[in-house]
């Protein structure tokens, strides 16, 4: 199994959410639980204690309760773009259920896949992306090739130059 | 769409560079040429991106090897069959094909991977300055040379030779090594030619001596060395007439034809 | 395999034993293998199911989990806006839904005059919403790009109010289940009408300013990541540039080749710069000289209209609360520009 086989995608912001105003992408949550089963105990506690506060603080999310006999509890979430997610919350405590609900609330309807890049930008460059002639003067075109370039100059002094320099110093001294 | 298309075209474009190999060291040049062939001069470089440029090398015939590499540097080949080993000296190869020395230097310098052949296809070498028009129109910029163009003795004016400070002089009774016997006799000849002693106007001779030990000579044996030195003086004499045209650095092994220099 | 067959057989026998006695005993018939045709049978069933097509999507109300009022309430609260309930309900009603309901009642024999449907469709609200959105978007664009031509502003506005953009917004806002349409899922036009009607409903419930803020927060961010110059098609950029420079009294644009590479190959590259009075006004690369020249003209136009890639981003969010828009002001039009230059040519620059 490699990253090429697992689906991957780039970071996407659904409909530029947050730039104008933030719209919670979670549309509705259906809490399926059993009224008597042990696995739904945490869910039942959550419904009794935390559900109303959650619903009041998130008026944009519609909460449905669906009791189902002899079935494990689930949180079924639907998002604005039509994506559906289901989380089994069997044998979880009320705090855990609350946590999962918080995760669902914070998500968008984009499928969770490996992110190729953790960032996205529409303006990758301000000064412009490099091209081969960016820092070249147009005058290189004015004369045909091959051209006589200025002679190669190295940082280190050559032996000939050193000798000439000595001669000049000598002349200076004598003068 | 069109805007982004042309910007991408400009960024990923392949430029054509010109490199004048006149009297340049092939090994130093190869490192620079390979740098451009690989595409490392670009900030968008990536090893597998095929981002290298074209390089057109001219004057490959006038390439100059360091020290006595013309004689000493050998190219090896084995046909694969027993007894199929052969070695060719650089000067021989250069005689046969004046583009091969620089070509091989670049080839051996490039990283030894599958991209090497493709990069070599983007290297265009010409022995002289004549380049086909199609290729010349492609060129967009020129690569700076890797060493200052050295001057041959015959390219120095007499005034320059005379004005250059003399560092030392051989004592009169100093016996040079057997290989330089002829030099000594030459010395005496030149002394005879001029009025003064050793210290006058022999700067040139010294320069000649110093330079004869340098890059340009390819003596095969002692006797040939002698012949070469003789031709050297003839060269000096010839150049008094003032032929400034640049000529081939290499001295051919059949320099028994002493008159032939150009 | 034999052992598995035996186990299944045993299981089958046990089930048979559990059956009440009055049923017909269906004994497995033992030919070579009593399940010989099962694979073929199941395959045939599968193919028939595929041929029949997928199950039609049903509205959640038909599945039993649906509270329309709660959903409407949540819809309003999601945006942080206060909607009038009735107006919001009206915004979702499509005309074809009303027609369908009326036909149903007619078939049932219910008299529509004595028992009216009581539903009004959303077309009025949609018209109102479209007006508000259109007016605001144009004013906002004129404010953001004061030097852009009116034709360009209109082109960008048309993009923002286009079928595609509004459909994309409508589908990601959660209208699907709320729309009351003849068919489910609703057609594309229903999304667009409903979205416009929502804007209208907000304007009527509260005021036009709130609706405009809504438009600014939802529709205008769709411009992010788009090149506004690409949205507007200029047929003759060089001609327009010449007219612009002439109207400003500057020299005509002169193209010059800046750099070129690989001219004799297929992968040729040319950089052309346009100069007016020996000053660079625009440059661009291109595959051929003609392309590069045209793109340079477009680049020069961008510089003159101040809509280059390096322009400032749109004012949105908290920063945009304080901006004041002039709804009556219009940007310079190309037609006026051309008329100007023609008049100048005909009558001189004294006019």
From TrEMBL, chain A:
A Gene Ontology term for the protein's cellular component: mitochondrial large ribosomal subunit
Compartments it resides in: Mitochondrion
GO biological process per UniProt: mitochondrial translation
Any matching Pfam family: L51_S25_CI-B8
MF annotations from Gene Ontology: structural constituent of ribosome
Keyword Nucleotide-binding: no
Keywords from the named record: Mitochondrion, Ribonucleoprotein, Ribosomal protein
InterPro entries: Ribosomal_mL43, Ribosomal_mL43/mS25/NADH_DH, Thioredoxin-like_sf
rRNA processing found in the keyword field: no
Residue stretches making up the Ribosomal protein/NADH dehydrogenase domain: 35-108
SMART domains membership: L51_S25_CI-B8 (SM00916)
Family: Belongs to the mitochondrion-specific ribosomal protein mL43 family.
UniProt-recorded name of the protein: Large ribosomal subunit protein mL43
TrEMBL record, chain B:
GO biological process: negative regulation of translation; translation
Full protein name: Ribosomal protein L13
Keyword Ribonucleoprotein part of the UniProt annotation: yes
Keywords: Ribonucleoprotein, Ribosomal protein
Signal peptide feature range: none
InterPro entries reported in the protein's UniProt record: Ribosomal_uL13, Ribosomal_uL13_sf
CDD domains recorded: Ribosomal_L13
PANTHER family: LARGE RIBOSOMAL SUBUNIT PROTEIN UL13M (PTHR11545:SF2), RIBOSOMAL PROTEIN L13 (PTHR11545)
Bias (Polar residues): 228-243
One Gene Ontology cellular component: mitochondrial large ribosomal subunit
Biased composition (Basic and acidic residues): 189-227, 244-262
Residue span of region Disordered: 188-262
Similarity comment text for this entry: Belongs to the universal ribosomal protein uL13 family.
Organism: Potamilus streckersoni
MF annotations from Gene Ontology: mRNA binding; structural constituent of ribosome
Automatic annotation (TrEMBL), chain C:
Domain Large ribosomal subunit protein mL44 dsRNA binding span(s) in chain numbering: 232-336
Location(s) in or outside the cell: Mitochondrion
SUPFAM superfamilies in the cross-refs: RNase III domain-like (SSF69065)
Chief subcellular location: mitochondrion
Keywords assigned: Mitochondrion, Ribonucleoprotein, Ribosomal protein, RNA-binding, Transit peptide
CDD domains: DSRM_MRPL44
Family of this protein: Belongs to the ribonuclease III family. Mitochondrion-specific ribosomal protein mL44 subfamily.
Name of protein: Large ribosomal subunit protein mL44
Protein source organism: Potamilus streckersoni
